[in-house]
Amino acid sequence: MREDTKALQVRGAAQSGTASQERGASRTGEASQARSAPRTGAAPQVRSAAQAKTASQARPSQQSAASEEKIRSQKASALSAGKQEESRSPEKTSGKKKKKASLPEEVIVLDHVVKSYSTGAPALNGISLKVKRGEFVFIVGDSGSGKSTLIKLLLRELLPTEGGITVNGTNVVRLRRRKIPKFRRGIGVVFQDFRLLKDRNVYDNVAFAQLIIQAKARDIRKNVPMMLSLVGLAGKYKAKPKQLSGGEQQRVALARALVNNPPILLADEPTGNLDPKNSWEIMKLLEEINEKGTTVLVVTHNREIVNAMKKRVITMKKGVIVSDEEQGAYIDED
Ligand code: ADP
Ligand code: MG
Which has the higher per-residue pLDDT, 88 or 167? Predict the structure, then answer.
């Protein structure tokens, strides 16, 4: 899948435009918005989809609301960053570029990370953790143990109160705001609630990710069907989300998260809304994606699946890691 670095860079550039943009509304303003309006993503998502459509024919131009302005500027920087990657490669030999050219062996590193919200005990209280390229990792733990906070830190939706975080070779703590969209291109994300564009069909939901980064029409026509086949939805490309089962919707979300070939996939309770059969199908897909080279980190409560899959299992409790086992099992700490 990831034959060479160039392909990775170019398509990677496409990628997280995806994630960051379509979750755009909540993302743009960073953490506070993301937290305060997790479900209000719907309306802005629809708007940004419309913009993306427009972008394929003409420049997006007429936004009025401030939030749209933000989305647009984020998109613009994502786009220009993508272009720079392509055009700069021959002469650009700085450290930064080298870092991109060869992804580090450890794609996720947390070093004594503490995250305190304004109220209560710290959500994360001294987390150190390394994930190697190509690993498949489950993160389990009671509700409130800090799993989603960890995911948000990896996406740079939040900054840690203390400690260091490196993702895909990028020092997330020192990352400048304007570089965030580009950074997020290296991370595909799926959530429990799918977060699809409700008024768009399956094909457009996935194509959206590529439109954001102005992928070539030819590439979109190739990549979208390829991803839909991978997730077993080639026959449903015209369906709208509400015509799909939960499992199918999550597969669309997965196709969208992966269409630009990010090196890392994060999934925060991806089977939380699914029945056991669909949960298994999604987990098997995640495994397949991992076998093709993507580093996969899955937050889940699904004890049966975790126990059956024999992957690395990190167990969190009250903001600390209480166990980290290769081929682990779901531990009940209580
Ligand atoms: P999990 O995903 O494991 O259920 P979270 O990371 O969502 O846990 O939450 C960890 C802790 O941080 C919980 O005690 C939760 O109440 C708290 N928390 C999460 N988000 C916020 C926030 N935006 N403001 C204040 N506290 C928060
Ligand atoms: Mg959570």
Answer: 167
